[in-house]
C-alpha cells in the first residue's frame, strides 16, 4: 500500500486559507479551505471542503478515508482548535473480522465502504488530515477496475452500517459529485480512529463516554422535562469515575451535545458563567462543535456574546455562578452586578426549565439583586460542600497540566457540569422559574422538592413580606404577611410544647424500640444488605415518630461516617389514592422520575434487581401498610421481595396498626418475605404518659403535678394514645385561661380544669341532646319506649309509635300532634342519630330503633 | 289583643291618606324581614351560644395569629346555628387587622364534594395553587393529592399562611374511600406543617364513631355542641327580635309603630299560645322563621301590621297534616275504598290486602246499606284504586311485576285510623251512610 507521512515522522503546519465565515447564530468560524505544509519539504497541500481526504490513524499503511464536510475553528479546545467534520468511509480491513463474511465476496484492493453508522463521531481535529485522495463511486453493476496504477484512487460501491453491506442509495450516489453541506449521517467510531491524536492519556473508558455523549448529541430531539434525568445521571456517573482525565474531548463533546440537548439551559449556564465574569478577550467557550452549528465570530465580542448567552440562558446561570463564587474565587461579584440588570425582567421561555419557583421570588430578585446573593446561595451550601471536593481535584489536575486559558475553561466547565449534575435535585428546587408551565412540570418540581425535604431552600427569601404576589408557582401555601406571634405567657408556651406537632428533643419511653430499630437498620447498612421489619401498634403509640428519630440519628451517624450513607424514603398508604401509586411515589422520591404506576414498578424492579454502580442503601418507610393491600397483593409482594435481593440494598420498615396483619391479610408468600422481624408498640401506660408530659413541659411550670397524673391515668385507661393526652392538656390550658379572672397571671392548670377538658372530649352528648330537645321530640322518645315495652321488641314501625305518641300527648294535655309534625320530629331525631330510622319513603311503615340505651333516654327524660 | 286591633284600625284610617307611602314602606319591611328569615346573614345576633362562640373564636385566632394547628367539630341538630356560628366567627376574625390578609379559607360541603377527587380539586382551586389555571385544575387524582400534600407540607408554623378548612356536612366526608382527605387534613394539623384549622360541621352526634381509628386518633377531639338549650322566654325574645325593624329604617314613625306592634304581639296571650305550641314541636329557629314568613305574607297596605290572627293562621298552615289535605280532595268512591281498607286492617290486624278484597268489602257495603253511593263497575273501582296508589295513600308490598295480576297485588294503607276519621269529619258533603259505615264496619246490620 501507499505510504503516507504521518505526524510521527514529519511535522506539518496547518493553516486556514481564505476568510473565515462567521455564523451569527452559532458563533464560530468556518472555512472553505485549509493548507497543510510539510516541514522540511516545500510541498503545500490545499484541502477544500467537499474533497475526500486521508486521515491519520493507528495504521500508517491504511489511513482512514473520509469526505471533508466542514472546516471550522473551535476555541474551546486546548490543543486542536482547528476542527473538521467528516463523512467517514471504511476499509474492508477495518470491518470487524466476525462481520467480514457478510460481504459475500472478496473485496477489491482499493474498495472502501460508505460508513453509515450514526453513532460514530464525525468531528475530528483538522490536524489529523494527511492528504486528499480520489474516491470514485461506482454503481452496483459496475466492476471495480483492477487497474493498480493509480493507488490513490479508491472506489466506493457499498455502504456498511455495522450490520449489513448495502448498495449506495441513489441520493448518496448523486452527492458524490457536489460538495456536501448538510449534516452527515455516517460517522466512524472515534474509539479506534482518534487514538494518538492530541492527548496521550485516552483510555477506552473515555471512548465509552464519548460515544454515549455523541449519542446524546445525535438524538437531540427535544425531550420532555422529565427525561434528562437519566442521561444526566449517566453522565455524572462517568464523569466522576474519570475525574482525572484532562479530557478536551469530553468538554468538546459536551458543548456540542448540550447546545441542543434539553438540559442546555444548565450547560449554557456553565458557558456564560465562564465567559462573563472572567472577561476573556476571546469569545471562547461559546464556540461549540455541534454538527448543527457553524459560524465564525470575530474576537473581542464578548460583551455581546455574553449578553446573547445571557438572554438564552435561564436565570439558573446566575444562580450557579453565585454558588461557585467561593469555590472558584475568580468570579467577582461586581461582575455579577453588571449582569443582573441584563437579566432583569427577562423571561427565557425558549429554554425548558427544570423547575418552577414562586414568581414572587423572581420578582424580588429583579428588584433587589444584591439581596439575592445571600438568599439564593444558601440552599446550595450543602450541595456545594459535596461538589467542592470534586472541583478541587479537577483544579489540581488543571494546574498540573500547565494550562492555557482555554484549558482552564474546559476544566472549569467540568466542575460546573458536575455541580449541576450532582446537585440537580437541590438546584431544581431552588432555581427561579422560567415560565409557569403545566401541571406535569409542576409535579416534576414537586417530586424534586420531596427529595430536598431536609433543606428548606426557599424559606429564606419568603420570610420578607412582598407587596402583591397573586400567583405562587411552587406547590406551596402562600406565606403570611405578618410573622406568627410568639407565645407570650407561660400557658401559651406550654400549649405550644404540648401540640402534637411539636418535636420533642427525645422520645421518652420508647428507648427499647428505638434501640431495636436502630440496631436493625444499622446492621443492614453496615452489612450492605437488605431486610424487612414490621411494626405494629394502636394509633398514637409513637411508631412513626420512633422510626423518624432512628433515621435522623442514622443520618447524623452517616454524616460522621460511622455508617455508610443511605437514602431515606417515606411513603404513607393513606396518602395514596390507590395502592399502586406507591411505586410512583417511591420512584419520584428515589430518582425524581415521573412515571405511570406500571412503568414505575418496572423501573423500580430494574433498579433493585440489577447491579447498580452506586451502591447506596435505601431505607424505605412504609406507613399504614394495610392500605397497600390489593387483590393480588402484588404491591406488598414487590415491596418485600426487593429487599431479599442482594443488589437491591433495600431496607423496608413497615408500620400498621394490627399485630397479626401479616397473618390476617397476606398470602403466605408475601408474609414469608416480610419475615419475622416484628415489633409491637404497646399502648403507653399511665406512668409513661406522665413521663412524656413531664418531658415536654420540662422547663414550663404550667400544670399541677396531680393534674398531669390525672390526665395520664385517664388516657391510659381509655386508649393509651399519646395524642389524646396532649390534646387534653392543651384544652385544659385554654380552659384555665378562660376561667381565670386576671388575664396576665392565669396560674396553674388544676385538676378541675383537666376534668372539664376530659369531660368535653369524652362525655357522650346524647343525654344533653335529649335534654335539650323540644317537648314533642321528648314525648316521641317516650312513645318509642312505651312501644318497645308493649311489644317487647327493640324495633317498631312509625305507625305504632305514632299511636302511642297520640295517646301520650292526650294524657299530658298536649295538643293533638298531626302526622306530618310527628314525621318531622322523627326525621329530626334520626338526623341527629338519636334514632336509627329507615329512609322516609317508607312513610308509616318505616322502622324506628333507638341509638341510645333505653336507660339513658329514661335518665335524660326524668325531669 | 284588643289593643292590637285598635291600633290596626287607627293605622288603617291613617293609611287612606298616604296609601302610597305606606305601600313603599311595607315592601321595604317585607324585603328586610324576608332577607333576615331566608339568609343566614352574619349580622344578626347569636342566641345563647356565647360560650361556644368564644371557644371557636379563640381557636381560630390562635390559628391565625400564632399559627397553631387545630381541629374541631361543631355538632348540633339541624337549624341550631352551626353555620351561623362559624360565619360569625370568621367575620369577626377577618375584622382583626393582623388576620385579614393572613388567612386562607377553604369551604367544602359534603353534599357537593361527594368524593375526595372532587374535594381535592376544589381545595386546590380555592387555595389558588399553581396547578390551577383559570378555574380548572389539572392533573390526575394522584397528582393532585401529592401536589396538595406537598404544598401543605412545605409550610411551617411561623412563616406559612394559615388555612382554615370548613367542612360542612362533615359526616359525608367520613364516607369517602379510606377517609383519605380527613386523614391527611388531620395529619397535617397534627404535624409541623402549614398551620391548619379544620372545622367540621355536622348534625350527627355519633360522628366520632364514623371516623376510622387512625383518623380519630389524629383528630383533636374538640367538640363544640350547639343544642338549642334555650327555654321559652328566650324563644319569645328571639321572636321579638326577629320581627322588629332595625333602627336604620328610613321612617322613624313607622318603625316605632311597627316595633310597638311587635311588642304588643309578644304580650298577647293567643300569640304566646301559638308560639308555645310551635316551640313544643321544634326549637329549630328555621321553623320559627317559616312561621314568621307566613305571617308576614299577610301584611298588605290595607292590613299593614302583623296580628295575632295572622300568626294563628300561619301556625295552622305549618302544623297541617299533608295527607289529611289529600284525603279532602278525594272522590266519594275513593273515600269508600279507603274506608273499606280501614275495615280490612281492623279485621285482619294490619295484614296487607289486595284490590279484590277491597272490592268485595265495598260491594258488601253498596249492596246492603248504601243508598247514596252508586254501584260502580269493577274497572271504575280499579281506576280509583290506582289513583290512590298514585297519591301514595296505598303502597304495594313488593315491586310491581308483569306477572302478578293487579287485582291480587298486596297493598298496605299509608293512613292511620285517626287520620281517616279526622279527614272524614272535615270532608265536604260526605254522605251520612258513608260516614256511618266509617265508624263501624257493622253499622249496616
Automatic annotation (TrEMBL), chain A:
GO terms for biological process: DNA replication initiation; mitotic DNA replication checkpoint signaling. Keywords: ATP-binding, DNA replication, DNA-binding, Magnesium, Metal-binding, Nucleotide-binding, Nucleus, Phosphoprotein. PROSITE patterns: BAH (PS51038). Residues 45-171 form the BAH domain. Residues 451-466 have a biased composition (Low complexity). Residues 207-216, 307-318 have a biased composition (Basic and acidic residues). Pfam families: AAA, AAA_lid_10, BAH, WHD_Cdc6. The keyword Phosphoprotein applies. It is found in: Nucleus. Residues 242-256, 440-450 have a biased composition (Polar residues). Gene3D superfamilies: 2.30.30.490, P-loop containing nucleotide triphosphate hydrolases (3.40.50.300). GO terms for cellular component: chromosome, telomeric region; nuclear origin of replication recognition complex; nucleoplasm. Residues 176-318, 357-390, 402-483 are annotated as: Disordered. GO terms for molecular function: ATP binding; ATP hydrolysis activity; chromatin binding; DNA replication origin binding; metal ion binding. The keyword ATP-binding applies. Belongs to the ORC1 family. Component of ORC, a complex composed of at least 6 subunits: ORC1, ORC2, ORC3, ORC4, ORC5 and ORC6. ORC is regulated in a cell-cycle dependent manner. It is sequentially assembled at the exit from anaphase of mitosis and disassembled as cells enter S phase. Interacts with CDC6 and KAT7/HBO1. Interacts with LRWD1 predominantly during the G1 phase and with less affinity during mitosis, when phosphorylated. PANTHER family: CELL DIVISION CONTROL PROTEIN 6-RELATED, ORIGIN RECOGNITION COMPLEX SUBUNIT 1. Component of the origin recognition complex (ORC) that binds origins of replication. DNA-binding is ATP-dependent, however specific DNA sequences that define origins of replication have not been identified so far. ORC is required to assemble the pre-replication complex necessary to initiate DNA replication. This is Origin recognition complex subunit 1. It comes from Ursus maritimus.
Automatic annotation (TrEMBL), chain B:
Residues 68-211 form the AAA+ ATPase domain. It is found in: Nucleus. One of its GO terms (biological process) is DNA replication initiation. The keyword S-adenosyl-L-methionine does not apply. InterPro entries: AAA+_ATPase, AAA_16, ORC4, ORC4_C, P-loop_NTPase. Pfam families: AAA_16, ORC4_C. One of its GO terms (molecular function) is DNA replication origin binding. Keywords: ATP-binding, DNA replication, DNA-binding, Nucleotide-binding, Nucleus. Its main location: nucleus. The keyword DNA-binding applies. GO terms for cellular component: cytoplasm; nuclear origin of replication recognition complex. SMART domains: AAA. Component of ORC, a complex composed of at least 6 subunits: ORC1, ORC2, ORC3, ORC4, ORC5 and ORC6. ORC is regulated in a cell-cycle dependent manner. It is sequentially assembled at the exit from anaphase of mitosis and disassembled as cells enter S phase. Interacts with DBF4. Interacts with POLQ. Component of the origin recognition complex (ORC) that binds origins of replication. Belongs to the ORC4 family. This is Origin recognition complex subunit 4. It comes from Ursus maritimus (Polar bear). The lineage of its organism: Eukaryota, Metazoa, Chordata, Craniata, Vertebrata.
